[in-house]
Every structure is written in C-alpha cells, then in structure tokens.
C-alpha cells in the first residue's frame, strides 16, 4: 500500500507489510498495528505515538520524528536515518540521551584501547643535517614541545649527529634514536655501528628494516630479524619498518607481504621483548612521494598487523604494541591518521625536518 501526500489522523489495528508512507502528515497515534518492513519517507511524524506496533525492519528516512514516542514496539532491524529526533523517546528513554551515551562509550572504548599503548611520534631524519643544523633544529623543537606529556617524541638522526642530538635534548622530553645498527656485537664490519655502541652513548631507539635500507642496501627480513635481536639485547627499542611495494598492493597481496614481514622480522623474539618494539607501517609507495595512504588504508593495515601479532602472541600482547604509520605524513594529514584506532603515532621523514610541522604532528597525536 502506498500513501503519498496524505494527512492521516488514525492508524489502528492495521496490518500492512508493505506500507509506504511518503511526504504525508501523521498527526496520530499508531496502535497495535503490523508495520513490518514499512517505509516512512520524508514524513511528518512530529509527536506521533507508536504503541505496541510490530515495526520490524521498518525504515524511517528524513522524517520529522521530534516528540514522537515508541512504546512497547518491536523495532528489530528497524532503521532511522537522517531524521529529526529532538524530544523523541523509545519506551520513555530520550533518543538523544541514548545517542550521547553511545557516542561517549564508543569514544571511551576507542581511547581505552589506545590508552593501553604509548603514542610515539618519531622523526626519521634520513641522510640530512650537519651537526650545527641538527642542534639548531632540536633547540627550536624542544621549546615548542616542552609541554607535551602524553606522546613519546623521538628524533632518529644520522650516526654523526647522535652525540650532538643527545646533548641538545638532555633533560627534555625528546628521546634520541639511530637509523640502523649492525647485528654483530663487534668485529670486521667496516662502516657498521653495533647496537652496543649506540646504547653506550645513551641512544634509546633504532630504526630497523626501513624500506630504503631494504631497497638500496640489500637488507632482508633475515638481517632485520638479526638486527632486531641485537638491538633488544643491547637494551635499545627497535622501530621495525614493514610495508608493501605499490606493485604488491596492486596485486592485492598487501596482507600476505605484511604478514610475512612480521613473522620473519620477529621470528624467535619472545613476547616480553616484542613489547619493547615499535612497528612502523610504511607503505613503500607513500614514502617521500607526497602520496599518503588514506587514513582508512593506514588503519586497515595497522589493524591487520595487530591481528597478525594477536595470532602469534595473543591479544593482550598485540594490544600493547605501538604501531605507527609512516609515509608522507605531514602537518595537514596527521590528525586524521592518528585518530584511527590502530594508528598509534607516526614515523615521519620530510616533515620531521621542520620544527613547526613536526610539532603540529606531535600535537595531533596528543589529541588522537
Ligand atoms: P616521508 O615522511 O618523507 O614520506 O618519509 C617517511 C619515512 O620513510 C619515515 O621513515
């Protein structure tokens, strides 16, 4: 039955499974009726009372339901979309109050999960900055972020800048990291730096398995795994990078690639040690390209990483791990990225070289 452009003043003991009421005005009570699967579209239902109706699967679209009341109705599967709801009640409970309660709880759940983890914003300076430039950048940054408490701030700098960076940030809330370390403790490895050498200086973090190292320096999951173990043994906190190539994403094997990297990079690492690690999801196609993954793409893969960890180590361990996003993250897109449930911060390249931009990202994570 279709009722269009009608003024209806009473519906009682009606049984209409295909009732469609459109652009009508119902200044009435609807009692003991079966309106299962009915559609109310752009209908004026202001102050209407629905009592003991079967409204299963019904749809209310762009209706004015303000002041309407539903009492003892079966609303299973019913949908109310884009309707005015002020003053509407269901079994005496205000719909607005219900929605506020839901929104607050939803937010709480989201932040509760995040609150169990530390948000970490780390800069990866790559091969940039001389020592005077490093000091100038950190001196500027430390003033700008001095009041930040809820986010761990890390600057991962070239080996030559470590001593300068440690001195410049002493007593501040900025931690210092290196950009790589070798897996052997010492020996004939010309040009390499061991984890112990970093730890002895006071370095806390180390980036491992960055795609640039995988791409240009023949880094493999096996050597990333060895380096991660060496870093942990030295007391460093590894930031282990994983991420798919554009070609792999286009071939729809992102999850396979990521699962493989997670399994291999952390092979033989116990849960207690894993908890000291940070994982950075850096889609290779987004690094330095200005092409950021959308917040949903970042969330999808970060959630997948967490699910993979849950299978390997259990949900509690997986929930405790900080998973960052990295790849063209900047002052403009950071807030949306870090607002995602499984994105616990960022590993930032280019934008970490500008104190103001890096600060904006840090502040976004404080609110994320
Ligand atoms: P960009 O932020 O410059 O894209 O670099 C990301 C990155 O590689 C961080 O490790």
Structure description:
This protein is an alpha/beta fold. The chain folds into two domains: 2-105, 3 Solenoid (Pectate Lyase C-like); 112-367, TIM Barrel (Alpha-Beta Barrel). 36% of the residues lie in helices and 20% in strands. The chain has helices at residues 95-115, 131-144, 162-169, 195-201, 211-216, 221-233, 246-250, 254-265, 271-274, 295-313, 315-320, 334-338, 355-367; strands at residues 2-4, 7-8, 11-12, 20-22, 25-26, 29-31, 39-41, 49-51, 59-61, 69-71, 79-81, 89-90, 93-94, 119-124, 151-156, 174-178, 205-208, 237-242, 278-281, 322-326, 345-348. The protein has an eight-stranded parallel beta barrel, surrounded by five helices. A six-stranded mixed beta sheet has the order 3-6-8-10-12-13. The protein binds 1,3-dihydroxyacetonephosphate (13P). The site of 1,3-dihydroxyacetonephosphate (13P) has 14 residues, from strand 21.
**Count of structural domains:** 2
CATH C-level name of the largest domain: Alpha Beta
Mean pLDDT: 89
Number of strands: 21
- Percent range for helical residues? 25-40%
- Rounded to an integer, what's the Rg over CA atoms? 28 Å
Strand content: 15-25%
Q: Which ligands are bound?
A: 1,3-dihydroxyacetonephosphate
Structural class assignment = alpha/beta
CATH topology term of the largest domain: TIM Barrel
Q: Going across the biggest sheet, name each strand in turn.
A: 14-15-16-17-18-19-20-21
User: Biggest β-sheet, characterized?
Assistant: 8 strands, parallel, barrel
Please, what is the CATH homologous superfamily of the largest domain?
Aldolase class I
Low-confidence stretches: none
Individual helix count:
13
Terminus-to-terminus distance = 50 Å
What is the CATH architecture descriptor of the largest domain? Answer: Alpha-Beta Barrel
- Cα shape: elongated
């Amino acid at each position: 039955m279709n009722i269009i452009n009608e003024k209806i003043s009473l519906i009682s003991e009606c049984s209409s499974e295909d009732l469609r009421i459109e652009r009508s005005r119902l200044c009435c009570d609807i009692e003991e009726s079966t309106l299962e699967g009915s559609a109310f579209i752009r209908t004026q239902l202001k102050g209407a009372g629905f009592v003991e109706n079967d409204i299963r699967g019904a749809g209310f679209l762009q209706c004015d339901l303000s002041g309407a009341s539903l009492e003892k109705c079966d609303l299973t599967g019913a949908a109310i979309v884009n309707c005015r709801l002020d003053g509407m009640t269901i079994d005496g409970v205000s719909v607005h109050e219900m929605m506020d309660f839901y929104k607050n709880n939803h937010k709480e759940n989201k932040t509760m999960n995040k609150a169990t983890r530390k948000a970490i914003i780390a800069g990866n300076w790559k091969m940039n900055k001389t020592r005077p430039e490093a000091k100038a950048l950190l001196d500027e940054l430390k003033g700008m972020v001095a009041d930040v408490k809820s986010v761990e701030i890390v600057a991962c700098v070239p080996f030559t800048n470590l001593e300068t960076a440690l001195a410049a940030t002493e007593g501040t809330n900025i931690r210092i990291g290196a950009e790589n370390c070798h897996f052997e403790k010492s020996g004939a490895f010309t040009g390499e730096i061991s984890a112990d050498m970093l730890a002895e200086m006071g370095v806390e973090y180390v980036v491992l398995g960055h795609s640039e190292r995988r791409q240009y320096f023949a880094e493999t999951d096996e050597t990333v795994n060895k380096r991660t173990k060496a870093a942990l043994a030295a007391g460093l906190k590894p930031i282990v990078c994983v991420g798919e190539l554009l070609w792999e994403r286009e071939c729809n094997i992102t999850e396979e690639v990521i699962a493989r990297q997670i399994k291999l990079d952390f092979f033989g690492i116990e849960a207690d040690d894993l908890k000291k690690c940070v994982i950075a999801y850096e889609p290779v196609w987004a690094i330095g390209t200005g092409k950021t993954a959308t917040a949903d793409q970042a969330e999808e893969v970060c959630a997948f990483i967490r699910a993979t960890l849950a299978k390997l180590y259990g949900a509690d361990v997986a929930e405790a791990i900080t998973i960052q996003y990295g790849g063209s993250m900047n002052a403009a897109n950071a807030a949306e990225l870090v607002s995602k449930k499984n994105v616990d911060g960022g590993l930032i390249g280019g934008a970490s070289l500008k104190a103001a931009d890096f600060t904006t990202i840090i502040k976004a994570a404080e609110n994320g």
